[in-house]
Amino acid sequence: MCGIVAACARREVSEILLEGLRRLEYRGYDSAGMALIDNEQRLQLHKHQGKVARLEDAQAMNPILGCVGVAHTRWATHGPPSAVNAHPHLSGQRIALVHNGIIENHAALREELKSEGFEFVSATDTEVVVHLMHRELQGGLSLIDALHAVIPRLTGAFALAAVDTAHPEQVVAARIGSPLVIGVGIGENFLASDTLALRQVTDRFIYLEEGDSVLLSAGQLQVWDAERVPVERPVKRISTGIEAAELGDYEHFMLKEIYEQPRALAATFTRDGAGELDESAFGAEAMEIFDRTRAVQIVACGTSYHAGMVARYWLEELAGIPCQVEVASEFRYRKRVQHPDTLLVTVSQSGETADTLAALRHAAPGEFIASLVIANVDNSSLVRESDLAFLTRAGPEIGVASTKAFTTQLVAFLMLTVVLGRRRGMTPEKQQDLLQQLHSLPDLVTATLALDSQIEKVAEAFIQKHHALFLGRGIEYPIAMEGALKLKEISYIHAEAYPAGELKHGPLALVDADMPVVAVAPTDELLDKLKSNLEEVRSRGGELYVFADRNAGFTDEPGVHVLSMPHAPEALNPIIYTVALQLLAYHVALQKGTDVDKPRNLAKSVTVE
Ligand code: G6P
């Protein structure tokens, strides 16, 4: 999704802005631009459709230089990807503005500004903001006062940053529902929508709070809260993560992140090396809140939603606690009847997903006893705004298709199952058993990764296909959903998941030799039922790709291709089968030649509704 980088320094900053944009590329975007105020106090601009590399080429051919500037990667919402719709947007050749998020009332504002003679060149919602700023500046306001005057006119969730040639040493910015951090340097200050963009210039960050605005110059920074009262926000030092975002020897971040799973999973359950399950990993007040919890409501989007779907099986079956799961974009707008004493659990790799955050923020007073987030990014909005937080230790995830974040979320949920289960009669032996199982997980994932070259071979069968079906039963149904999501995200093959028992109620009509059918088949109590469903596929000429426990009794035969998975304790199957399906999607995409890490139209962190 869109990314913002801005800089105020006493040195030339074009390369810092470009490097910041490169580091934001993983979020997904379709155009990029930057504007600098040069030493003659004129605005200089480059913007292009396509990759940041095009901006670099333009900069190499025709360098624009300055000590103050704003830069942006755009993920189109209003107006198609194009140079003219790319940010920064200008007004009167004096103001340049970049924007993340959506201005919902842009149409009315556009009419108002047009009637006053402002000319629009783009189809974006953003352009109204830069003209509104211009109008306030013409009225004699300072740059920050102009921003303060404009914000109340805007509805939506957004982050903004702007420069003005009449205030050539300043950058102003505001955070209204879309993340923004200040990077604090020595005699220079920076701004970005993600700390990753600035790790090359500083390790000290100020996380802006909701509604904050900021005035930056090289030597000064001033923050105002939503009421426009000047405030001090704490400076936090971040020491890790620069090297983790490097590709190393891997061809893609997705592959690197798939292979990082044994370490990421172990890091997530062995908190600080402790052998026992430490409940404080969920937050200081977790014990007291868990004592009162009688039901769980999980809310998330995308892959994180699938983690929640898996968790429902564990929480109800192993911990005996009622659990509901819903996608955040539906949950947030629905009138609900909540079980008393329900714990709201949000799940999010980024901690910034707009719908998930809105679900947390818009929960009715008293509707939940408390909120817990399972997130991968410390200091993210969901972490800061939830009562309890469990941080997965996946490390930075750059590939748009989520991999290690998902499996570490599952580990977090198994831990939650134990801590809630022990309050509802789960025996100490069962608790110990689950924790022991977790300790065997990294080795089982390593054994699954060893199937890589076999899965690569199987992937060849998919590259000419336009559709695929994924089947699972019970807890493997959400894993089939996650496998289908991975395949469609990065290979653009239309993939659907079904609980295998539903096959005969519709999707069976689609099955023929052109429809590969992937089955998730560990040994569990539903295995025989699944086998019958797969027979239904075979009888219609469907080609089966069965990821099966080596003891499940499947053998290769014409039309049936079996991938022999390691035998694992039942609770761990969702994790290891996911790893195999991640590899399948990766190899299909690789062989099709799609952009594995940055699939078209998608964004890593979806900060608009
Ligand atoms: C985007 C990403 C997905 C991710 C979803 C939820 O759609 O492309 O990979 O699962 O957002 O993101 P979150 O950060 O909340 O887990």
TrEMBL record:
<dbReference type="InterPro" id="IPR046348">
    <property type="entry name" value="SIS_dom_sf"/>
</dbReference>
<feature type="domain" description="SIS">
    <location>
        <begin position="286"/>
        <end position="426"/>
    </location>
</feature>
<dbReference type="Pfam" id="PF13522">
    <property type="entry name" value="GATase_6"/>
</dbReference>
<comment type="function">
    <text>Catalyzes the first step in hexosamine metabolism, converting fructose-6P into glucosamine-6P using glutamine as a nitrogen source.</text>
</comment>
<comment type="subunit">
    <text>Homodimer.</text>
</comment>
<dbReference type="GO" id="GO:0006047">
    <property type="term" value="P:UDP-N-acetylglucosamine metabolic process"/>
</dbReference>
<feature type="active site" description="Nucleophile; for GATase activity">
    <location>
        <position position="2"/>
    </location>
</feature>
<dbReference type="GO" id="GO:0046349">
    <property type="term" value="P:amino sugar biosynthetic process"/>
</dbReference>
<dbReference type="GO" id="GO:0004360">
    <property type="term" value="F:glutamine-fructose-6-phosphate transaminase (isomerizing) activity"/>
</dbReference>
<keyword id="KW-0315">Glutamine amidotransferase</keyword>
<protein>
    <recommendedName>
        <fullName>Glutamine--fructose-6-phosphate aminotransferase [isomerizing]</fullName>
        <ecNumber>2.6.1.16</ecNumber>
    </recommendedName>
</protein>
<dbReference type="InterPro" id="IPR001347">
    <property type="entry name" value="SIS_dom"/>
</dbReference>
<dbReference type="InterPro" id="IPR035466">
    <property type="entry name" value="GlmS/AgaS_SIS"/>
</dbReference>
<dbReference type="GO" id="GO:0097367">
    <property type="term" value="F:carbohydrate derivative binding"/>
</dbReference>
<dbReference type="InterPro" id="IPR035490">
    <property type="entry name" value="GlmS/FrlB_SIS"/>
</dbReference>
<dbReference type="GO" id="GO:0006487">
    <property type="term" value="P:protein N-linked glycosylation"/>
</dbReference>
<keyword id="KW-0677">Repeat</keyword>
<feature type="domain" description="SIS">
    <location>
        <begin position="458"/>
        <end position="599"/>
    </location>
</feature>
<keyword id="KW-0963">Cytoplasm</keyword>
<dbReference type="InterPro" id="IPR005855">
    <property type="entry name" value="GFAT"/>
</dbReference>
<feature type="domain" description="Glutamine amidotransferase type-2">
    <location>
        <begin position="2"/>
        <end position="219"/>
    </location>
</feature>
<dbReference type="Pfam" id="PF01380">
    <property type="entry name" value="SIS"/>
</dbReference>
<dbReference type="GO" id="GO:0005975">
    <property type="term" value="P:carbohydrate metabolic process"/>
</dbReference>
<dbReference type="InterPro" id="IPR029055">
    <property type="entry name" value="Ntn_hydrolases_N"/>
</dbReference>
<keyword id="KW-0032">Aminotransferase</keyword>
<dbReference type="GO" id="GO:0005829">
    <property type="term" value="C:cytosol"/>
</dbReference>
<dbReference type="InterPro" id="IPR017932">
    <property type="entry name" value="GATase_2_dom"/>
</dbReference>
<keyword id="KW-0808">Transferase</keyword>
<dbReference type="GO" id="GO:0006002">
    <property type="term" value="P:fructose 6-phosphate metabolic process"/>
</dbReference>
<dbReference type="InterPro" id="IPR047084">
    <property type="entry name" value="GFAT_N"/>
</dbReference>
<feature type="active site" description="For Fru-6P isomerization activity">
    <location>
        <position position="604"/>
    </location>
</feature>
